[in-house]
Each structure stands twice: as structure tokens, then as C-alpha cells.
Design a protein that fits this description.
The protein is of the alpha+beta class. The protein has 3 domains: about 1-55; about 65-215, no CATH class; about 225-325, Homeodomain-like (Arc Repressor Mutant, subunit A, Orthogonal Bundle). The chain has helices at about 1-15, 20-25, 40-55, 70-80, 85-100, 130-145, 165-170, 200-210, 225-235, 245-250, 255-265, 270-285, 290-300, 305-315, 320-330; strands spanning about 105-110, 115-120, 155-160, 180, 185-190. It has a 5-stranded mixed sheet with strand order 1-2-5-3-4. Helix 7 (about 165-170) links the parallel strand 3 and strand 4. Helix 1 (about 1-15) runs parallel beside helix 3 (about 40-55), helix 9 crosses helix 12 and helix 13 (about 290-300) crosses helix 14.
Length: about 325
């Protein structure tokens, strides 16, 4: 209800009443006085859209000047042509500065962690919490939409005392913990997501912008980075990922989640194992003189016999014959 009251205060700042917007969202005015009252995501969508249109301000009073209806859609369109998520989000942050200098958004990386942060250029007053939460949630929702993927957070930080409605933050920013009294408002996530390609086109953008507000509350379950994380684990820790259970433990997911998400991404654990093991084995056989037994262990096999059987199935040759034929070609 704190966010509903924030929207109502934006109306008051313009000398207007929010009665029609509240009625459209089926929010009884009496609920505004109940600090423990809750509304649904659909109600928040209806209320926000009505307020943004009536006030002609997509920022709902956060900034010193209005952001007319369509401002955030313009930012999304300007980012759509980027090659990957990192460049799209940097473009989004840079263009946001053209709309207002009351806040500045930055995207940086440090030790493999991406940080999307807000620097406040002025006192945001009573709407500070609503502004910081909304801007970060909008950016996170757009990032998920661009990839058509869940983007799990390491943590979210806010330079605010923990509010009575702190549980709402854990719904809006799922994944890691939400930290209050932080130095600044920011989201942290695995920087590898920044290399993910954008999976949306102009047609999808047009459809999304017809109902963009659900991005602020929609949660994606698919994680397109999982296939790459599995490949990396199989490559760098082959002996620790023999079984689905061991691999799932390395990735901090359950075996069931591991299999389900790989299926959603059109992959299987066995298929990824074969792909990575074959790549490692071929590389070592052709580029090194390691004994076959060592190659087998490096590729993730428990013994030379099982490796030789699998390798013959991949190539039609034994590892030794493959090595010799490769050496002859090189010579």
C-alpha cells in the first residue's frame, strides 16, 4: 500500500484526485489507511497505467520534470538493436540520462559480477523509495524480457531503512537477499548474462509495449545461461560432475531443476556431456602427447575403457588411431 499512497501523492502534487484511477483498479480508498493492506499485480498495473496517462508522466512524480507517456518505450526501442544484453543495458542507462538528470544509471562489472546502480542527483523526497524500486525493477524486467530468460540476482541493495513491507521487495527482486541501508540502490548479478544475445524483434517489441507494465512484476522461470554454466562446469571440473546430482550441487540447483531447465532450453545433460567431452578429448589428442589414460580423466571419464568406447562411438576410431591420423595430416 505504500506504493499506492506514493501514486496518490503524485496526484496531490498536481492538484488532482486519484479517485478514478483507484476505482479502475478496484482499490477502495479506505485501504490507503491500512498499512498492512495488499493489492494484486493486476491492480498495480491498472492503477499505474491510469495514473501515468492522467498525469502524462511515466515517472509518476519522481523527477523534476514529467516523462510523457511513451518515454520508457522509447528507451526500450533504442536498446533493441544492441548485439547483446550488456550493450543494450548500457544504452538504456545512457539514454535514461537524456530524460532526467535527477538520477544517473550505470552498468559496471567487477570480478565477474555486473552491477546496475543508481546515483541520486537530488533529493527525491517522499517518492524516493517508489522511484528507486520502480526504476530498478523496470530495468530488471526489461533485461529479462530482452533475453526471454530469468536473470537471477546475487542481491539487491537500497539506501533505505528496512520498511514494514520489506517482504514485497523479495517478490520484486527474487534470487539473492535484499540489503537495506546500503550505500546506493543497485542490483548485482552474474556478469556472464551481459554476453547473452537479445531474443526479441521489432514485432515482439510492438506487442510488449501494448502492455509493458507487467514487466515490473513478471517472473521468468527459464534461465538461458544454464546451458553455458553446465558447459563450463563440465569443462573445468570434469571429475566433479559425473552425475546429475554432483553437477546440480556445483550449480546450486536441484537435479530436477537442472533437467527441467535444460529441457526448456532444448538441451539434455547427456548431450552436453558428450559435446564437452568430445571437444576436450579431440583437443588433447591432437595438441598434446598425454597418455590416453590422462586424456580420458581430463575429459571426465572414470577409466580409459569407457573413454575409448565413447570416443569410438563419436568418431568411428579409437583414441590412438584418431591421434595417429591427425598427426599424419599435420605432417
Amino acid at each position: 500500500m505504500a506504493f499506492v499512497r506514493a501514486i496518490c501523492s503524485a496526484y496531490a502534487a498536481h492538484g488532482l484526485k486519484p479517485d478514478q484511477a483507484l476505482a479502475r483498479a478496484h482499490i477502495a480508498p479506505g485501504l490507503l489507511r491500512q498499512t498492512d493492506a495488499r493489492i494484486t499485480a493486476a491492480q498495480m498495473e491498472l492503477l499505474s497505467e491510469a495514473a501515468m496517462r492522467e498525469l502524462d508522466d511515466e515517472a509518476l512524480g519522481w523527477f523534476s520534470r514529467r516523462l510523457p507517456w511513451g518515454s520508457y518505450g522509447m528507451l526500450a526501442r533504442a536498446s533493441l538493436g544492441a548485439a547483446d544484453l550488456g550493450r543494450a543495458m548500457k544504452r538504456w542507462c545512457r539514454h535514461h540520462g537524456l530524460l532526467t538528470d535527477d538520477i544517473a544509471l550505470t552498468l559496471s562489472t567487477q570480478d565477474g559480477v555486473a552491477i546496475l546502480a543508481i546515483e541520486e542527483g537530488r533529493d527525491l523526497g517522499a517518492l524516493r523509495e517508489f522511484c528507486l524500486v520502480s526504476v530498478l525493477r523496470n530495468a530488471h524486467g526489461l533485461a529479462c524480457w530482452f533475453m526471454a530468460s530469468r536473470l537471477p540476482l546475487i542481491d539487491a541493495g537500497f539506501p533505505l531503512d528496512e520498511p514494514a513491507h520489506a517482504d514485497v521487495y523479495r517478490v520484486l527482486f527474487p534470487g539473492g537477499p535484499v540489503l537495506f541501508n546500503a550505500p546506493r540502490a543497485q542490483l548485482r548479478f552474474d556478469a556472464r548474462y551481459l554476453t547473452q544475445p537479445l531474443r526479441r524483434d521489432e514485432l515482439a517489441m510492438n506487442q510488449m509495449l501494448q502492455r509493458a507494465l507487467p514487466l515490473t512484476v513478471r517472473q521468468y522461470h527459464r534461465d538461458r545461461l544454464l546451458v553455458e554454466r553446465v558447459r563450463q562446469a563440465l569443462h573445468h571440473q570434469p571429475q566433479a560432475s559425473h552425475s546429475a546430482e554432483a553437477l546440480a550441487a556445483l550449480l546450486h540447483v536441484s537435479p530436477r531443476t537442472l533437467h527441467r531447465q535444460l529441457k526448456d532450453e532444448g538441451a539434455t545433460l547427456q548431450g552436453l556431456k558428450d559435446e564437452v567431452r568430445r571437444q576436450v578429448a579431440v583437443d588433447l589428442l591432437l595438441r598434446t602427447e598425454r597418455p590416453i589414460k590422462q586424456v580420458a580423466l581430463a575429459a571426465g571419464f572414470r577409466n580409459e575403457k569407457s573413454f575409448s568406447r565413447a570416443f569410438r562411438g563419436w568418431t568411428g576410431d579409437s583414441p590412438q588411431a584418431f591421434r595417429q591420423s591427425g598427426a599424419e595430416v599435420t605432417t
